[in-house]
Design a protein that fits this description.
By secondary structure, this protein is mainly beta. About 10% of the residues lie in helices and about 50% in strands. It is globular, with a radius of gyration of 14 Å.
Length: about 130
């Protein structure tokens, strides 16, 4: 029986390439409650409803200028109230950035669910 894994896909706004993403995240290190390993995060307004499928081995795939170039494993979610008093969600990510095969993706807003069978294959870690 294969695991039911769902990924997220998101435009990497404010960055030009994977190096920019790495540099952005290196100052955004946290310790995830469920592991001793350092993690990083991104903040979004909506918490994914398919959380169990994502935490079953899913990743966030990053799109740079219309191309999927990398992914990071999603290791948790945490709701919080932001400074502007709006409920938001931290998507907790493994710090390792894994380069993927290059795959074109048309623009979209926010994040989307991304089927595991549609995801590009890994190349190397960054």
């Amino acid at each position: 029986m294969s695991k039911n894994i769902v990924n997220l896909i998101k435009l990497c706004v404010g960055t030009q390439n994977v190096s920019d993403l790495y540099n952005l995240q290196k100052n955004r290190v946290i310790h995830h409650e469920k592991s001793d390993l350092p993690a990083t995060f991104l903040i979004t307004r909506m918490r994914p409803k398919r959380e169990n499928e994502i935490l079953n081995g899913g990743s966030i795939f990053w799109v740079f200028k219309g191309l999927i170039l990398a992914r990071q494993k999603i290791i948790g979610f945490k709701d919080f109230i932001s400074e502007d008093n709006i409920k938001r969600c931290k998507i907790i990510l493994d710090r390792k950035i894994i380069l993927t095969e290059i795959h074109q993706k048309k623009p979209f807003q926010g994040w989307r669910y991304f089927k595991n069978q549609d995801a590009p294959k890994d190349r190397e870690m960054f």
